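Please review this one:
***
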Amino acid sequence: MNMKKNSLYELKWNIIGTLGKLVIDLLFSTARIESEGLEKVRSVLASQKFIIACWHSRLLLINYLCKGWNGAALVSQSQDGEIIARILQKQGHETVRGSTTRGGLRALATLIRLLNEQTRPAAIIPDGPQGPRFKVQPGIITLAKKTGYPIIPVTYSAERVKIFASWDRFMLPYPFTKCRAVYGEPLYVPEDADRDMEENCRIRLEKELCSITDYADRYFISEK
């Protein structure tokens, strides 16, 4: 009975992951996607040794742009996290489950091991899974320190969007709209960084993510 229940559970979530990937692919196949700031990060992206950081509300397009990268992503153990994890897996990534509130230290240790064993990108949503919105949690700084990987801040906005009344004000672009992805300055965390330096890096990342997000939003306001 348990085996049948587990099989049905897996089937349900595999279907959700497949449908989620298809919907995202279809949505952004209709969009006009532009990028800004790629010249800052092109060589880092080519090395495959980097950590993508984006706000929870700006996940959707970044998720689409990173598909097929064979990355390792830290995803929360919540039900929303399960949806994200299944979609990421269908997009060719490995997921490690944990957050600041549940299983975070163990998940972070697993992610560090995976990156040290194989050259591959990583991804963390630094204000997930429940906020505070636009506030960087320290786990991503620890990951960068322990692996030597630079953090690449990235965000996006769109011309026509639906903003949900969730804690993060999640952004859903409409089909056939114009989207703009914006890359920030890579952030390196020294391996000998003390707590004060780690906090300084955390604040710098937070300010850079807020700055490029504000810039992306204002870009479409200025066009109208």
